[in-house]
Amino acid sequence: MRCDLTLKMDLLGEKEAQELFLHEVRHDDDPSRVHLKQKQKIQQIAVQVANQCAKMPLAIIFVARSMAGIKDLREWRNRLNELKGDIAGIHDDEAKILEQLKFGFMCLEDSIVQLCFLAAASLLADDRQVYKTEIIQNWKERGLVGFDRQCEFADDKGHVILNQLERMCLLQVAPDQQIVTMNKWIWKMAKKVNC
């Protein structure tokens, strides 16, 4: 959650979950001229999406950040319907959380970022800690980064993707900014996506 100290968080109450979602999606910060009525409808749908996230802070943040910047009411409704469809009929809490995280992953629009995340997850199994340089080297060996640019700029692209994955809470970077880890829930979701 963009802090220097890692804290274990319990499930949130409904109002707290909604506030966190709206904060992370930054709905109120939008300076565009989206019609006020449409903005209110989007906010109502955003609250419904937040309510689908099992009140788990990680799921709320990840799904919210995957939807940040969406201004089309139809896209919001579609995403809500997709999320509801993905978790409908799932009664096991763990399975529901993994499905919600998978939904956020599927909302990532760049397939290269998705593939880089899955490749990083394979390196970070069993609570491993890996240097950023090792992850980027793995991506280069797999042809995920560097195939379209000179060698000296391939590392820059790798760092851009690492930063994006960190902002989305898919990776955790140690305070020294060199070592990467992955939350156990995120790793389980990656494993489920790879199956």
TrEMBL record:
The keyword Repeat does not apply. The keyword Ribonucleoprotein does not apply. Keywords: Plant defense. SUPFAM superfamilies: P-loop containing nucleoside triphosphate hydrolases. It comes from the Eukaryota. PANTHER family: AND NB-ARC DOMAIN DISEASE RESISTANCE PROTEIN, PUTATIVE-RELATED, NB-ARC DOMAIN-CONTAINING PROTEIN-RELATED. This is Probable disease resistance protein At1g15890. It comes from Spinacia oleracea.
